[in-house]
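Team,

Forwarding the record for the chain on the shared tracking sheet. I've put the sequence and predicted structure together so nobody has to dig through attachments.
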Amino acid sequence: MHEPDKDLIPGLRAGDEAALRALIDRRMASVHRVAYRLLGDRFEAEDVCQDTFLKFWRAAPNWRDGEARILTWLCRVATNGCYDRLRKKRPDLPGDMLEPVDSRAPVDRKMVADERWDALQTAMMTLPERQRTALSLCYDEAMPQRDAAAVMGLGQKAYEALLVRARRALRALMEETEHA
């Protein structure tokens, strides 16, 4: 198993804060995207990220090579942290999801694209947590299915089946929106 953060492991095991800062610089955006997609709240996602990296910092001295990739471990811990928060409180549908901006598009096409993007984000937030997680790991993080399955604590076939159900559900929600 190739570990892209292998160069940081000795420093992390030794408690080197510079190695932790380097890891955060490399992996914060990915972990935050996963948490944000699940929670729909930037501040909650930042809290989950902070907790996740703190947990890793505490676990780093005992890190064993070859058991898991660091990013997989981080995403798994962040996902579990999000699930814990969602169990405690159901989130409101966000109105401030990240939107792609294309200043070259004509205004009317941009408005239609913005409306479709908003509908997609709203539909994503109505999916069950596990389906949302599967889609986020696949599309937001472009994570290989083997790794995404590990993050979710599933076998690869179970992850693939969950992803198929999530795609179907999202497609159905989007069709409902278009016909409404």
